[in-house]
Amino acid sequence: MKDYTFKVPQDIVFGVGSLKRLPELLEKSGSKKMMVVSDRGLEKLGVVQKVLDIVETEGIETVSFLDILPNPTVDMVNAATKVYKESGATSIVALGGGSPMDVAKAVGVLARYGGSITEYEGAHLVPGPIEPIIAIPTTAGTGSEVTAFSVITDTSRNYKLTVFSYELLPKYALLDPEMIMSVPPMVAASCGIDALIHAWEAYTSLGASPFSDAMAEKAMELIGGNIRRFVANRKDEEAACAMMSGSMFAGIAFAWARLGDVHAMSHPVSAFFGVQHGVANSILLPVIVEYNALADHGRYEKIYNYISEDKEPVKDFKPEMLVAEIKKLNASLGIPKTLSEVGVTEDKIPQMAVDAMKSGNIAANPRQTTLKDVEMLYRKAL
């Protein structure tokens, strides 16, 4: 067994109705004024106001930055940082999916250390602790509340840059399953498959360890056993709890084991064509699972058992059975089959492949992958 290290330096609060504990966590952070980073969709649904009401009744001042869009940009980070600094806020509440959390983490860096987020691109360039963040996920998908990554689009390069530092981990993660029980079915589906892929790629990653395996296996058990019923009925409290817990465990798994080709290749798809991250991942998954089968050493069968509706013991398992099962799952959830269905065109494949190869996830993929391999995989997914 190879050497490995891990830590879980956060306070994680889970429970139906636990949103009401937000003032308690702000008090622990020593903050009397918070900035909510979220989006207009959650504002229209009344979710943002619900959060503001909870803290304002406790005498805590608030300011909001709600202009977050999918695949957030460097300009959004700069605008949010300006609001944070000028308001005098002393903590950030990241409310939403991965996009608000990515921005909140970037703001936490720039508010403390200045400069542009592009200066922190790469690994371990954040010099120390950032502004305190309380992460409140409203989707069961990204796991950003427990990960050390911020992914921001640099529109000048059509490139999704990644800042990786354990300093980015939110101080608190507040997981209330009620927050995901009103999402639309396609959001539930694409985010749920994204969470499954986080666990899946961490489990097959060259960086996997017994710790990350434990997190990944529990995540796949919870998500694989509940994603169909959750998409069918988001009011199913038991399924919602399982999905939110599974997403969190998947996030911890890949925070310590990295990911693989799926995520390396999905980021350029989103950067060039604006495809939602979970959808891009879901479309790429069957193609890359088939490609990685050559490197499998028994883990495909375990994954199959987690996601298959058939709970009978498998006889004579073959990797193609897993490929067929994930295609079946995608289809049942309404995930598009090909990249062309979501607007991706072949002319951008060479540049997307170049950008995908810049990802550190390529090195963690179980099967060695070259630039030509990536181009081939894109064309197969097209």
TrEMBL record:
Q: Give the superkingdom in one word.
A: Bacteria
- What region holds the Fe-containing alcohol dehydrogenase-like C-terminal domain? 189-382
Q: Which Pfam families match?
A: ADH_Fe_C, Fe-ADH
Q: Where is the Alcohol dehydrogenase iron-type/glycerol dehydrogenase GldA domain?
A: 9-177
Q: InterPro entries from the xrefs?
A: ADH_Fe/GldA, ADH_Fe_C, ADH_Fe_CS, Alcohol_dehydrogenase_Fe
Keyword set includes Lyase: no
- Which top EC class is named for this enzyme in its record? oxidoreductase
* UniProt GO MF annotations: alcohol dehydrogenase (NAD+) activity; metal ion binding
Specify the signal sequence span.
none
PROSITE patterns (UniProt xref): ADH_IRON_2
Assigned EC number: 1.1.1.1
Q: Which UniProt keywords apply?
A: NAD, Oxidoreductase
| UniProt entry tagged with the keyword Manganese | no
Give the similarity note.
Answer: Belongs to the iron-containing alcohol dehydrogenase family.
Which PANTHER family would you find in this protein's record? Answer: ALCOHOL DEHYDROGENASE (PTHR11496), ALCOHOL DEHYDROGENASE 4 (PTHR11496:SF102)
Q: What is this protein called?
A: Alcohol dehydrogenase 2
